[in-house]
C-alpha cells in the first residue's frame, strides 16, 4: 500500500503543486490520477519514487517512510514507465530491459534471460531483443518500456501517461495488455492520465485533482460517475458520464433470442458458426455482406448499445468465448438492461435515478442459399426474449 499523509509540494518560485494530500492507494490495485494540466497529478506520482521531493508530510510505500531509504535504491525497487518509453537509443532492446537488474548486481546472463522472458510476457517476438529502439513502432516501444519497468519484479509500478503518444487503436491494445498483465502479476500501479475514458477503463480507484494540487474526489469508477463530488468533477467527467457508467457493466444477463424464420436480413455464418456479416435479401446475390461486430458476455453495455445502433437490423449478434454464435439481442432488451444497470448503480450509491444520462431513443425470402461453407440465420424485427420466450444460451 502507498500512503500519503498531509503531503505538500511547493516549488522555489512559490507555486504549490500539491496541497495537503492525504490518501491511500491499495496494494494490488490500479489507482489512476486524473485532472487538467498543472493539477499536480504527475508531481504526486513522482514524489513516490523521490524524483520530486515533498516539501512536507510523509509518504509510506509498503509501510516504510520513503525518506528513510536511499533515493537511488528506492527508485530501483519501483517500476517507472513514461510517455514514449524513454529507452536508451544506443542499447539493444534486450539490454534496455535488463537495465535495472544489472544495476542491482545481477549477472549479465541472468539479467538478459529475465529480459527475454519479459519481452514475451508483454507480447513481443523473441527476436525483438536484438533490435534497437528506432527500429520499433511507438506501440512496441511502449511495450518495451513496460517490460523494463517490470524487469526486477518490483511491487510498485508508476506509469506517467504511458499511452498518450500512440494512436487510438494501439492505445486500446496497450490498455488491454496492461489489464492482462495486472491479472497475472497483481502489482500496485499508480497511473497518470488526462483521459477520463482511460481512467474509467483501467482504474480500480480514481483520484480527481484540480489546479493547485487539491484532491477533489477519490472513489471507485462507478461511484465517481454516478455521484460526482461537485460541479468541477461533473464538468471534468463530461456530459456523457452516464454512458461511461455503462462501460463498467457487461452484456452478461441481457436476454438472447433466436431469430424467426424469414426476414429481410440474414446473419451469415461460416462453417464454425462464427458470424461473417449481414446479408440484405432485397439486394442482388453478389452484394457484399454488411459488417457485423459480434459481442461476448464480457463486452460492455456501452459497446452493445453502440452496435445495436450501427447494426442494420437493430440486433446484436452474441458469441461465446470461441466466437460461435449463441443468439441475438434486441436493441430494446439492451436499452432496458442498460437503464436498469444505471438505476442500480445510483441506488447502490444512494443516488436518485434521473434521466440526465439520456437514452437511445415487407420481408423477402432469400434468392439463393449461402455457399457450402456458410449457413444463414434470419434476423429481422427480433422480439425481446422476455416476450418471445426464446432466450438463447449465454456466452461463457
Descriptive report:
The protein is of the alpha/beta class and 396 residues long. The chain has 2 domains: 245 residues, P-loop containing nucleotide triphosphate hydrolases (Rossmann fold, 3-Layer(aba) Sandwich); 124 residues, CBS-domain (Roll), CATH 3.10.580. The protein is 32% helix and 21% strand. The strands form 4 sheets. The chain has a 6-stranded mixed β-sheet, with helices on both faces. A 4-stranded antiparallel β-sheet has the order 2-1-4-5, covered by helices on one side. A 3-stranded antiparallel β-sheet has the order 12-11-15, with no helix packed on it. Helix 5 packs across helix 6 and helix 12 runs antiparallel to helix 13.
Largest beta sheet: strand ordering: 6-7-8-3-9-10
Figure out the total of helices. 14
- Element order, helices and strands? EEEHEEHEHHHHEHEHEEHHHEEHEEHEH
CATH homologous superfamily heading of the largest domain: P-loop containing nucleotide triphosphate hydrolases
Largest sheet: 6 strands, mixed
The radius of gyration is 25 Å
The beta-strand count equals: 15
> Which residue ranges are poorly predicted, with pLDDT under 50 across at least 5 consecutive positions?
351-376, 378-396
In CATH, what is the class of the largest domain? Alpha Beta
Output the CATH topology of the largest domain: Rossmann fold
| Assembly classification | single chain
How widely separated are the two ends? 34 Å
Strand residues, percent: 15-25%
Q: Helix amount, in percent? A: 25-40%
Assign an overall shape: globular
Number of domains: 2
Structural class label: alpha/beta
Amino acid at each position: 500500500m502507498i500512503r500519503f499523509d498531509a503531503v505538500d509540494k511547493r516549488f522555489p518560485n512559490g507555486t504549490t503543486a500539491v496541497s495537503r494530500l492525504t490518501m491511500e492507494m491499495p496494494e494490488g490495485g490500479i489507482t489512476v490520477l486524473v485532472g487538467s494540466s498543472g493539477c499536480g497529478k504527475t508531481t504526486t506520482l513522482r514524489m513516490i519514487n523521490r524524483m520530486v521531493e515533498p516539501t512536507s508530510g510523509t509518504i509510506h510505500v509498503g509501510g516504510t517512510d520513503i525518506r528513510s531509504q536511499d533515493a537511488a535504491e528506492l527508485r530501483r525497487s519501483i517500476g517507472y514507465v513514461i510517455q514514449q518509453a524513454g529507452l536508451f537509443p544506443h542499447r539493444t532492446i534486450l539490454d534496455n530491459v535488463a537495465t535495472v537488474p544489472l544495476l542491482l548486481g545481477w549477472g549479465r546472463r541472468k539479467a538478459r534471460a529475465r529480459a527475454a522472458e519479459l519481452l514475451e510476457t508483454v507480447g513481443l517476438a523473441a527476436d525483438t531483443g536484438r533490435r534497437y529502439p528506432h527500429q520499433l513502432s511507438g506501440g512496441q516501444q511502449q511495450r518495451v518500456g513496460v517490460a523494463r519497468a517490470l524487469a526486477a519484479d518490483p511491487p510498485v509500478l508508476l506509469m506517467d501517461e504511458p499511452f498518450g503518444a500512440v494512436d487510438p487503436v494501439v492505445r486500446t491494445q496497450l490498455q488491454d495488455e496492461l489489464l492482462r498483465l495486472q491479472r497475472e502479476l497483481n502489482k500496485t500501479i499508480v497511473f497518470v492520465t488526462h483521459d477520463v475514458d482511460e481512467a474509467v477503463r483501467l482504474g480500480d480507484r480514481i483520484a480527481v485533482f484540480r489546479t493547485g494540487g487539491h484532491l477533489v474526489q477519490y472513489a471507485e469508477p462507478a461511484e465517481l460517475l454516478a455521484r460526482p463530488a461537485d460541479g468541477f468533477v461533473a464538468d471534468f467527467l463530461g456530459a456523457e458520464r452516464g454512458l461511461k457508467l455503462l462501460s463498467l457493466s457487461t452484456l452478461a444477463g441481457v436476454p438472447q433470442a433466436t431469430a424467426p424464420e424469414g426476414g429481410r436480413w440474414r446473419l451469415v455464418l461460416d462453417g464454425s458458426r462464427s458470424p461473417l456479416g449481414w446479408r440484405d435479401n432485397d439486394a442482388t446475390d453478389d452484394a457484399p455482406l454488411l459488417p457485423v461486430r459480434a459481442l461476448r458476455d464480457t463486452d460492455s453495455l456501452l459497446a452493445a448499445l453502440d452496435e445495436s445502433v450501427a447494426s442494420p437490423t437493430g440486433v446484436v449478434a452474441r458469441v461465446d468465448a470461441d466466437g460461435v454464435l449463441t443468439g441475438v439481442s434486441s436493441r430494446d432488451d439492451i436499452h432496458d438492461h442498460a437503464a436498469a444497470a444505471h438505476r442500480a448503480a445510483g441506488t447502490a450509491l444512494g443516488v436518485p435515478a434521473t434521466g440526465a444520462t439520456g437514452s437511445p431513443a415487407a420481408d423477402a425470402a432469400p434468392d439463393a442459399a449461402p455457399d457450402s461453407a456458410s449457413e444463414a440465420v434470419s434476423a429481422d424485427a427480433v422480439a425481446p426474449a422476455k416476450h418471445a420466450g426464446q432466450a438463447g444460451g449465454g456466452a461463457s
